[in-house]
Write a structure and sequence with these properties.
Blueprint (H helix, E strand, L loop, with lengths): L3 H11 L7 H29 L12 H8 L1 H34 L5 H9 L8 H10 L6 H4 L7 H24 L4 H9 L4 H30 L2 H6 L6 H11 L3 H29 L16 H30 E3 L3 E4 L13 H32 L4 H12 L6 H12 L13 H11 L2 H12 L3 H9 L4 H30 L4 H4 L7 H10 L3 H33 L8
Antiparallel strand pairs: 1-2
Helix pairs in contact: 2-16, 2-17, 4-8, 4-10, 4-14, 6-8, 6-14, 8-10, 9-10, 10-13, 12-13, 13-17, 14-24, 15-18, 15-19, 15-21, 15-23, 19-21, 20-21, 21-24, 23-24
Length: about 575
């Protein structure tokens, strides 16, 4: 038996040193909380306040809301947005679910290739599918005759574009959901005499329910808050997000823009709350080891699922190849000779090469600073001893950006940073503000990913490092950084790709000196320079693809070197 003095000394020596740095960690978290309040809560407060003011800043109550609902053209956009979001969500979730099911539980050939193709749309700006559809089915489209009297400009074009754009996000969620299906439970149900449909309703549906609900909520919210697609291919079909763009950019009506933003924020917040509720219910399905479910299929079933996957992949490739080809064709479809003239952005008035290099700067700064900040905050909240109130408040604030559409955040930032009485007014129109808004907008997903990774690192590793005399920073460098590096690389490429393709918030915050590639695509299309708009979209796609390829090559080696401790030894 050890005496109390010796035991206390040993306990003190082997306790992770991070637990003894509560003051510094608490101060760091407090600074982060204050910063998030300043960059998130205060701008949103001004947004709500602006909806109840007139152009002179006088309080007018609900007059702006009454004016909005009494305007027939504006009010009709609510109905258009809701039924378009419902239809696009239903179709995309159905297609992506079957696609994910085939790649998860059925022996489909070329799975890696099919998966890679499904991820391609996420690397391109949302406007690319609309531009490609115009080249295929527009007034000079090569398949115009197949459309008959139907116009691609309007609901049909919007629907097809959204299905293309939403597919990767829904596919990722459903892919993860189908991996939660446990072969053992399927076999147990069948051994009890349950039929195919009874088994799937009792086992499969509960396992994928959270992924299915999340996919529906994500799709619905994305459609409601995106204005790029309806702007390019919507014709006279109005949607709420497009109304916001017209009110603020076209008419400089900030008050009406704030009203529509609040209306858009309501379904996004409701979807977020419901998603959090569903995630808590789903946790009980994640507390056991899942044996992957492999479906026993006939040759016909395998052939049908394979054909379906190849068809979907073919549609995705058709739009991407069309965009790439159109960017090199001199005058579609009359002069099909090849040219690089559309990539001579120095002759384009809507951004040009400066916009592309600005996007690279934005993506680079967002990746570096965003990754560092998110990693430090996640590490502090998960492994440092801080006051529970600070920790809970920080966790709440880190989830909040997930419920705020980028379009709403952009308008809130206009109201907040464009106020000359605000000391932070100096940031308005600068690259720094674009970096801040991008990090805030995409903060939640990387934070959750890193938090989950840090939780999985055994505390004994840190205790062992401390007992060997390693300093706090050496422990961070030797333990947490290497073991978190694969996840850190994942969130870095996530931030880079989103910074390259983002439009929603940036469209309201850029200046002539900080124009971005994705924004210039919209401006080029507005100016009638569709070929250059397609070329810029392709350039964004290729840049994101190159970064994603480099990321894949790097993480392959990192996983082998840093994640061997996860493997079970016998």
């Amino acid at each position: 038996m050890l005496d109390q003095t010796t035991a206390a000394a040993i306990l003190k020596h082997h306790t992770p040193r991070s637990l003894r740095y509560s003051l510094s960690s608490s101060v760091f978290l407090l600074i982060c909380i204050i910063t998030l309040f300043g960059l998130l809560i205060f701008p949103l407060t001004l947004l709500f306040k602006g909806a109840f003011l007139d152009s002179d800043g006088h309080y007018i109550g609900f007059a702006n809301f009454i004016e909005y609902f009494s305007n027939e053209s504006l009010f009709s956009s609510i109905f258009n947005s809701l039924w378009m979001a419902t239809l696009a969500t239903t179709i995309t979730v159905l297609l992506a679910s079957v696609y994910a099911y085939a790649l998860t539980v059925i022996d489909v050939k070329a799975k890696a290739l099919l998966k890679a193709i499904a991820f391609l749309p996420i690397l391109a700006p949302s406007i690319l599918p609309s531009l490609a559809l115009v080249y295929l089915f527009g007034q000079q489209g090569i398949f115009k005759n197949l459309m008959g009297e139907t116009e691609i400009y309007g609901p049909l074009g919007i629907l097809l574009s959204y299905c293309f754009w939403l597919f990767p996000a829904v596919f990722i969620l459903m892919l993860s959901a189908f991996r939660n299906i446990d072969q053992s439970l399927i076999e147990a149900s069948q051994s009890l005499g349950k039929g195919l449909w009874s088994t799937h309703s009792a086992v499969t549906l509960p396992a994928i329910r959270y992924g299915l609900v999340s996919a529906c909520l994500v799709s619905f919210t994305y459609v409601l808050t995106d204005f790029g697609i309806p702007k390019v291919i919507g014709g006279s079909f109005n949607m709420m997000a497009l109304d916001v763009y017209k009110q603020i950019i076209g008419q400089q009506n900030m008050q009406m823009g704030a009203v529509i933003s609040i209306l858009l924020l309501c379904p996004a917040v409701l979807a977020f709350v419901f998603d959090r509720y569903q995630s808590k219910r789903q946790q009980r399905y994640q507390n056991f080891q899942v044996k992957p479910y492999i479906m026993k299929t006939t040759a016909l079933t395998k052939w049908l699922f394979s054909g379906f996957c190849y068809f979907i992949a073919g549609f995705i490739l058709l739009l991407i190849i069309t965009a790439i080809a159109a960017s090199f064709i001199r005058y579609w479809p009359y002069d099909l000779s090849m040219t690089f003239d559309h990539y001579r952005f120095e002759y384009v008035t809507s951004g040009g090469w400066d916009a592309y290099f600005n996007s690279l700067k934005l993506a680079g700064f967002t990746t570096v600073f965003g990754s560092i900040v998110i990693f430090m905050v996640a590490l502090s909240t998960e492994r440092c001893k801080v006051h529970p109130l600070l920790k809970h408040l920080m966790q709440m604030l880190t989830l909040l950006p997930l419920a705020i559409p980028g379009l709403v955040l952009g308008i809130a930032y206009i109201l907040f940073f464009n106020d000359v009485q605000n000391p932070l007014h100096i940031l308005y129109g600068t690259m720094s503000l674009l970096v801040i808004s991008t990090i805030i907008h995409y903060y939640t997903v990387p934070h959750l990913a890193l938090s989950n990774t840090i939780k999985q690192i055994p505390t004994q590793l840190e205790a062992a490092a401390q007992s060997l005399g390693a300093s706090r920073w050496k422990t961070f460098y030797k333990v947490y950084l290497p073991l978190s590096l694969p996840a850190l690389c994942d969130i870095s490429v996530y931030l880079f790709v989103n910074a390259m393709t983002t439009v929603s918030a940036a469209i309201f915050l850029y200046s002539p000196d900080t124009n971005l590639a994705a924004v210039s695509v919209l401006n080029m299309d507005d100016a009638g320079d569709t070929a250059s708009a397609v070329a810029m979209s392709v350039l964004i796609l290729l840049s994101s693809a190159v970064v994603k390829l480099i990321h894949g090559l790097l993480t392959r080696g990192l996983l082998k070197r840093t994640q061997a401790w996860r493997e079970t030894t016998h």
